[in-house]
Amino acid sequence: MTTIDADVIRHLSETSVSVEIETEDMTLNIGPQHPSTHGVLRLVARVDGERCFDVQPVIGYMHRGYEKLSEVRSYPQITTIVNRIDWVSGYANEVPFIVAAEKLMELEVPERAQYIRLILTEMARIASHLVFNASYPLELGAATPLFFALRERERVLDLLESVTGGRFHPNFNRIGGVKPAYASGSNTRKLTQDLPAGFLAETHTAMDKVLEATEQLEDLVAGNEIILARTRGIGVLPPEVAAAYGVSGPNMRSSGVPFDLRKNQDYLPYDRFDFDVITGENGDCWDRWHVRLLEIRESVKIIQQAIDGIPSGDLQAKVPKVIKVPAGETYVRAENPKGEMGYFLVSDGKSGPYRLKIRSASFSNISVLPWILEGALVPDIIAIMGSLDFVLGDVDR
Amino acid sequence: MSSSPSETATHPLQEFADHVADAVGGTAEIQFDTIKVRVPNDRWIEAHAKARDTLDLVFFSWLSAIDWSNEVEAGDPLEEEVEERVELMTALSDLTEGRLVVFSTDLPSENPTIPTLVTTFAGANWHEREAYEMFGIEFEGHPNLIHLYLPDSFQGNPLRKSFPLLSREVKPWPGKVDVEAMPEKPSPDEPSTENPEA
Amino acid sequence: MSTDEKDRDTRRKLRPTGVCLLGDPGLARHAEAEAPAIWYAGLSGGNRAKSGAVIMPTWVVDLFSNFWVSLGGKLLLVALLIPLVGMVIGFAEMKLSAKMQYRVGPYFAGGRWGWAQLIADGVKFFQKEDIVPTDADRPVFKSAPILVLVGTVALFVVIPFGPNLIFRDLDVGIFYALAISSLSTIGVLMAGWSSANKYSLIGGLRAAGQLIAYELPLVLAAVGPVILAGTMSLQGIVQAQVDAGIPYILFQVVAFVIFMIAALAELTRIPFDMPIAESELVMGYLTEYSGFRFLFFFLAEFANMFTMSAIAVTLFLGGWWLPGIPEDTLEFAGPIILIGKVFLLVFAMIWFRWTFPRFREDQLQGLAWKWLVPLALINIAATATLKVIF
Fold it and tell me: Which end of chain C is least crowded, N or C, by CB within 10 Å?
């Protein structure tokens, strides 16, 4: 019989044994088909329980090769396809491209055309922000704000359709201005240099309805404790990180940086109008939502001022039938609803560009995802990703 | 040096452009309101670090390249012959007045390589991956230089001028036959057309 | 006359005519001693003898005296009642949510009202292909919906629809109800685990955590009315409210609120639908279910809304009783009153679902453990103290 040393037993009983339960982390594939990824975005997330520690976005499912395509297209043809980059705010994509081409041609665009471009761009901004402000609570689970906001968005889209012919893809810009309309009775084929009758008045009244919708959204969402608990302090983006990654637009402004390209660029006559640059405080998801809601109100202000002060004149400058843009390079940047959109146009004097580099806002906006999603919980992945407001067409071009 | 033909007076941004060029050691030119500063290859990273730290150009807008080549597979060739090279460009901006500077450097057409900007600007990560797969530029020191948009098995660099537009291989561009006359009009050359088609 | 004599007397009077399927089990014991399986309506074993008997022909009485026939009849009733309740509440949800969102809701199925929409949906689900994922654990996968539905159906047994309309008035009514409703927790976990899908697994685990966490506030909140009534039998609790003349909600506001919140969490409805979380996990533990298996879950959710609300009504709002209505009418009006009150609570649940977003899992757990459980405990202590004092 073996004698058991009492000391050994005492030692063993006193030793605290800590057992670490080895759990494997799981690789969770979010997307590409998923209710919340705004398109075909794939996130390969390594999660440990509910916390993820490595998120790699995989993009390219919607790559359509815009830059290569534009090397074989002429300028009017490129206008047709360019509004499909960020399809939620269709009109806003065309403007910087056309302005770049006009810059190389040193063309003077009539004032009326510039005002119309501005009005339509701001309407596109309202449409884009309404979609975001409505669908973001849906990702958190509240289904009702969606319907309130989309109802007003329908009004805006109907107005866009009445003047451009397209709700999402207007194709309304022409080199030198906007597209002149026909006189009533299209079999005359006679051009009037004007918008359809009543468009401006209807837009003015529609803006009041849009303001109502923003108030409804604010009531429903801003006072809701659960939404605040889900979004405050989540996904904080410091301004230095945002600048290093190239995050622009409302995402940058909600981190507290009062930088708005509408104030310091001259692609459209924004300097004639009085509007504020909305900034947030913390750079969390709540700020990103709220900033965009307030920006809708600023856009309404701009539109109403523009309609009140619109000058008369031609809608398009005189341009030759076959457009040849002289050689040169230029970069035009614009404040798109999603962020900074820019076109670097290299022209060789032919009817199409030699190289068109499209700087799209959402591409840079989601390049920050690996940084911002580090250590986030799985429900927060959806909340943070949604708050960056990206569209896959904008990401993949 | 301003190359915009209608400028006789100095461009409002000329002073800033010269200041930037002096700070980073390159040459500046302004074309159509866009400042472009050319830097030599070996000063690429330094120039960006200087721009970020001293010139307040903290916002990394984009990085891309132009393939200057005289033979093109898709589209029209250049009017005048140029030196064949790949021009790598980045755009940095400040966050106060919105002044943007395009930095550019020239790389050889065959096997272009350059150190990576990821350590200076974290956002260069994805842009360099895109330039790698589209132009074949190797970025030394990049943590994850793999395809961004294209499938992993894709071979070739699509944005190179020597890469054909695949859809045109299948079906050639029909050309001007798209413009047809309306049935009741005698000739297509009426003054009132809405679409100046090329 | 003593109670027994009164009963025998009434039985003699009613024997040829008064037969009903539902009756007081206490009396049934008496009845079985004399003649098997004849149940009497309108006679309570307690302090009231009523004459609200349902008149039926003799041959029906004899038919249903057969045990198997009556069993079959009861099963048929259950099989019809559950889908009916589910469909009505589902339809109510569709129409109410539509009204809240400027929409119309179901419109085409069934005239201009759309009442046949859910019947159409039911038929659609039935004729779908039965897809079981290859890697799924087949027996567990197939039995999970059944377990969830059983947990719901079994609750119908103890709900008092009227003064004498209850399937079984168990002495441990509320205890049984809360215990059996947690059977669905196991079903949910089984569904999540056996689906061979990471999303389902996450959903199932979230569900398990949430359902277990919210069992406690549910049970503790229900203890308040039990203390006040002095009995766990649900019929007894309603009776106590009738006797006192006040529904218990006036004394137990806190407990009522806690019960409703915990009930919403047990139902995994928004704001507590993390386990399903449509925008994140596709459908959580329900992702791989299609066809009639999904229909089971679907019906179970709506039927469970009914039963949870019915239990809340019984405990707090007075069940089938409304002050001022004479007892005779309560025999018939009881179920209607109960269903009316249940629909009030169901309306509130639907309203919450379409207004609020969902809680995150850790916030959910924090709410349960840090707020609801302590509040419920304080409520029990206060109730007990006050009951002793007064």
Answer: C
